[in-house]
């Protein structure tokens, strides 16, 4: 039977819409398996683990090699300090290796002579103190008996001292600590040898080291590296040479005082004061003056006060008169910046940081000064620390105007 018109015109029933997907795991694949993870995810995880392992390994290696890196830093600055002398000798026909050896030989002879003189002086003073110990003990016992009305005797004091528990413990601790002291001495000698060898190689092979460093840089960077190297040599050498000159002046001044007071070992004490006060920052002056004061006290207690007063006065003269003139050209940095750099260097590297802080900051300041554009400063009184002053009569004129305004009159009393 043929379909009617009504049946033919009825549209087909629409297909039902898919229900919304509930939250949960992602849909499975065509074969019923879960979707595969991105291909980059395993590689990223392996790369992250490798970076963490490399960082941990680098941190461990850096902490293990800290001592060696500090020795290399000291050797580098020492090589920069002797670079002008080595270059001058090399320019006059000597081989660079031989010139470096001669400079180190002179430094070694000077250091050995100073240590030998200082050791002989200390040994003589120790022997003198031991020989005069009974006399010092008798005077102390007599003063104690007179002051406190006691009846002490030298024999009783010596017996109590020999048989005391603290002396026995001190001897035992000293005996057990001999190995530690020996290990520290051997470690110090090995460290000194390491610094000497590295500084010798840096100074002798300086041109080769610069060529090797510049060979991996483009020409524009090569000029900047060579300029920074030259500035570092000038500042470090100038700093050490100016310190050496001030040490010579300080030693000569203290030698005159010690010789006038007839203090024994005056030349050695003068050299000690000059070197320690100049090459140990911040506390070098106090360490340098302690030994001459101690030796002067054994001669006469009043001489120790004379030495103390001279050290204080000379330190002020050096800080405000001598040092600014000698270091103005070699290390042109503000005293506050120098003091802050010494504190920062001490906090980072200890005594080594205190020694290399000032030449390092001077080098950085001079290098950055070439790239910082400067302008002329306006002629303003506030630049010189003066405040702007009002014209004469400004305050009184303002008061008169205020009083006239309240009275309703003009400046001249007119209505």
What does this structure look like?
By secondary structure, the chain is an all-alpha fold. The chain has two domains: 65-216, no CATH class; 218-370, no CATH class. The chain is built from 16 helices and no strands. The protein has helices at 5-9, 40-64, 66-91, 96-131, 133-148, 154-162, 165-176, 178-204, 206-214, 219-260, 266-279, 284-299, 301-326, 335-349, 351-369, 394-407. Residues 1-34 are annotated as: Disordered. Keywords: Cell membrane, Membrane, Transmembrane, Transmembrane helix, Transport. InterPro entries: AI-2E-like (IPR002549).
How large is the count of helical segments?
Answer: 16
The averaged pLDDT comes out at 77
What letter string, H or E per element, gives the SSE order?
Answer: HHHHHHHHHHHHHHHH
What spatial form do the alpha-carbon principal axes imply?
extended
Portion of residues in beta strands equals: under 5%
Q: How many domains comprise the coordinates? A: 2
| Cα Rg | 40 Å
Number of strands: 0
Instruction: Give the structural class.
Output: mainly alpha
Helix content: over 70%
Which segments are poorly predicted (pLDDT under 50) over 5 or more consecutive residues?
A: 411-415
* Most strands sheet: none
**How far from one another are the termini?**
125 Å
